[in-house]
Design goal:
alpha/beta, five-stranded parallel β-sheet, about 10% strand, Beta-Lactamase, six-stranded antiparallel β-sheet
């Protein structure tokens, strides 16, 4: 449960009363020492109490204690006379400021990254402060009435204890600052923070001491003011979250103290020794000099920057020049960053992820590119560091204790890198900007890393543009390659389709060659089938037993609307075609194979009714069986020894399947027998004998006139099947290239008997 506004207000006032009570007590002691009549005590005491009350209301604990210590020191100035109580309170207040500074130094937060986190304990420093301060306070508090013994020695050497207290306070702060900078030197920004605190320590001591001398303050009070001021300044530097700001403020303070302090002291000494008529002129000159120094302080502090500011200036110029076209921005930035090392030094390099290459500039300003892949661990480590900057000296210092960093340390050493800064934004790394090794007096500072980060942030847009362009070109190249492959596959598929169509046409043509419609009855039957094929209508054939319907169907198919499609012939008398699972198979079903072509059901009445119903249902819905998502488009053709209507009446043809034949259901095309087409018989016999001769002997075989006449007079009750059997036996029997009557007598006496009977009937 969160506290309400009322409870928070009460807690705030309790803190204010608690921390202001000590200051109020010291202020009352100072006022009493002045006799309650002097305004100095009331003014100084009021200010001290108000300052303590204000600081007590702050949320930071260190601010409250620091404000209390300062207010105690300020309150002691309410009395001009120095009493033991006031001196003791001033010592306690100054030591409190140093104690707060000691705790703040030990609590300086550590940054992220691979640098180890080192804790600095303030226990030793606080113990020294307690001993030195306790000795000084006791020396001032003990009465002077007793003579002899330890107490007299203690009280008679108060100056010694005061000096020990001052030196102890200053020593604790100075040693802790140096120890922190040494122990945490691997953390980027810690060295410049330590240097900033050291500069602030020394500058504050000099300025306060010089001001106290000019103001004619007693040494005891001046020492406490110096200690309190140093503790306050060092605590403020330690509590500042930005180490760069600490370094910049300390650098500017040193510059102002060196130049402005000298001018102020000189002016004060001149005013003190000059005649009263010259004071206004001297003051005016001093003010003018102070204004000039304040206006030019940025130029005065330039030599105090890290490495005299060469890298900071280069980064500032690179940040300005990295504009415009992506390639121009990269080139200008690399050229500018090369100036600190000179033209003879190695060039900074930009390692990009997409495209995987390294960009450098030579001494003449020309861009050089080479293909190289940035290791993933370098990009990950640099992206996790403060300001996304990874120094080489940090990896070299940790490679023994951290084996996982050895590869990164070796790679950066081999590449001659000083630092690597990740380039990118939104958590994505597009590349790394690498600065080459250069002679330096101090490690790479946080201020320089921040300036370099500004350059990489400016280059991130250029790298993203180059990365996007590279990816676009890569995708375009990949798309072109895939398009070429797709074209090749499409061409191959079209060729395979054309080959398959040609193969089907050739097979169909081979079957169609057996049809010789020279007789009127054959021509009429073929014309009827072809007309239905051209109109893409189903075909029903009434075929006498022994007559081969496939030549007629094949010849009609070649002139029909589906001539490029396949002809799938189903022998309904085969037991394999009676299995329903074969017809339901999506890939092997005759229906699926006949898609776009013709499905011929030979002797359809032999198929089971379940199979016929499946065929009717699939053709009706237009989808292949087994998967309703696959389309089905076939034309049906059936053969039977009788018409579809008669076959349906006998219960051998499914009614739904019979409906798909439309008008052919009641008007099937009847194929003539051999006896009904004598005009075709002569040609058929000659062709069959010649082709059988080629098959057996490799040469065509002829038929003599008498043998041909005897074969023509034969009735052929077995139709085409009997004709083929007789021709094979005659060709196998003949000795030469001609089938003779003797061959007929020897190979097939039934033909001779039939002929003799016909001759007898004709003679009678």
């Amino acid at each position: 449960m969160l506290p309400g506004p009322g409870s928070m207000l009460r807690d705030s006032w309790r803190r204010r009363v608690f921390f202001s009570a000590a200051t109020l007590y010291v202020a009352l002691v100072a006022i009493r020492a002045e006799g309650f009549a002097q305004p100095r005590g009331w003014l100084v005491g009021g200010f001290a109490v108000a300052f303590a009350t204000y600081c007590a209301g702050r949320t930071s604990r260190s601010t409250r204690w620091l404000g209390t210590g300062l207010s105690l020191v300020i309150a002691t100035f309410g009395a001009q006379a120095e009493t033991s109580a006031l001196v003791a309170c001033g010592i306690l207040g100054a030591t409190g400021c140093v104690a707060v500074a000691t705790c703040c130094i030990s609590r300086i937060p550590s940054g992220s990254g691979v640098a180890p986190v080192t804790k600095i304990s303030p226990a030793a420093g606080l113990a020294i402060l307690a001993i030195s301060t306790g000795a000084a306070v006791v020396a001032h508090v003990l009465p002077d009435t007793r003579r002899g013994g330890a107490i007299e020695f203690w009280t008679s050497h108060r100056g010694l204890w005061d000096a020990a207290e001052v030196l102890g306070n200053l020593g604790v702060v100075g040693i802790l600052v140096e120890w922190t900078g040494l122990r945490r030197s691997l953390e980027i920004g810690m060295l410049e923070r330590a240097r900033g605190m050291r500069a602030a320590w020394m500058t504050t001591a000099l300025l306060v001491a010089a001001s106290g001398v000019v103001a004619d303050v007693s040494p005891d009070r001046l020492s406490e003011v110096v200690v309190a001021a140093i503790g306050t300044v060092v605590a403020a530097c330690a509590r500042e979250s930005d180490a760069t700001r600490v370094s910049q403020v300390a650098r500017r303070s040193v510059a102002l103290a060196l130049v402005g302090g000298a001018v102020a002291l000189l002016s004060a000494s001149i005013i003190a020794t000059s005649r009263s008529t010259d004071v206004p002129v001297i003051a005016l000159v001093a003010v003018a000099l102070a204004l000039a120094i304040g206006a030019g302080v940025s130029h005065i502090e330039r030599p105090l920057r890290p490495e005299r500011g060469v890298w900071l200036d280069a980064c500032a110029r690179a940040n300005v020049s990295a504009w415009g076209d992506a390639d121009d921005a990269v080139r200008e930035a690399l050229m500018t960053l090369r100036t600190p090392g000179g033209l003879s030094s190695a060039s900074p390099s930009l390692w990009t992820v997409h495209p995987p290459e390294v960009v450098t500039v030579d001494a003449a300003g020309y861009v050089r590119r080479r293909e190289s892949r940035l290791p993933d661990f370098i990009a990950a480590l640099a992206n996790a560091e403060p300001e996304r900057t990874l120094p080489t000296h940090l990896l070299k210092s940790l490679e023994v204790r951290r084996p996982e960093l050895r590869a990164a340390a070796t790679w950066m050493s081999d590449e001659g890198a000083l630092v690597c800064t990740a380039v990118g934004y939104d958590g994505e790394v597009d590349g790394v900007l690498m600065l080459p090794q250069a002679p330096r007096t101090v490690p790479f500072t946080l201020e320089e890393a921040r300036a370099l980060r500004g350059v990489t942030d400016r280059l991130a847009a250029a790298c993203r543009v180059r990365s996007t362009l590279a990816r676009t070109l890569a995708r375009a190249e990949e798309a072109r390659r895939r398009a070429d492959q797709a074209d090749a596959r499409a061409e191959l598929a079209q060729r395979e389709v054309r080959v398959a169509e040609a193969r089907r046409t050739l097979d169909t043509l081979g079957v169609a060659m057996s049809a010789r419609p020279y007789s009127a009855t054959s021509s009429l039957a073929l014309d009827a089938i072809e007309s239905r094929s051209r109109l893409d209508l189903p075909v029903a054939l009434e075929v006498p037993s022994g007559v081969d319907p496939l030549p007629y169907i094949a010849r009609a198919h070649l002139s029909g609307a589906r001539k490029s499609g396949a002809i799938v012939v189903v022998d309904s008398t085969s037991a394999r075609m009676h299995a329903l699972s074969r017809w339901e198979d999506t890939n092997a079903s005759p229906l699926a194979l006949a898609h776009g072509g013709l499905l011929v059901l030979l002797d359809v009445g032999a198929l089971p009714m379940t199979v016929q119903a499946l065929i009717a249902r699939s053709v009706g819905v237009g989808h292949a069986p087994g998967d309703t998502l696959i389309p089905l488009d076939v034309r049906l053709a059936m053969t039977a020894v009788c018409g579809p209507a008669e076959l349906e009446a006998k219960g051998r043809l499914d009614s739904a399947l019979a409906l798909h034949f439309g008008d052919a259901r009641f008007a099937p095309v009847r194929l003539p027998r051999l006896q009904e087409r004598p005009e075709d018989l002569r040609t058929l016999i000659i062709e069959h004998v010649a082709r059988e001769g080629l098959r057996v002997f490799g040469r065509p075989v002829g038929v003599e006139r008498a043998a041909l006449s005897r074969l023509i007079d034969h009735a052929f009750p077995g139709e085409d099947a009997e004709l083929s059997a007789i021709v094979r036996r005659l060709v196998a029997r003949c000795d030469g290239d001609i089938v003779r009557v003797a061959d007929i007598d020897a190979a097939h006496p039934l033909v001779s008997d039939a002929v003799l009977k016909n001759d007898s009937v004709a003679a009678g």
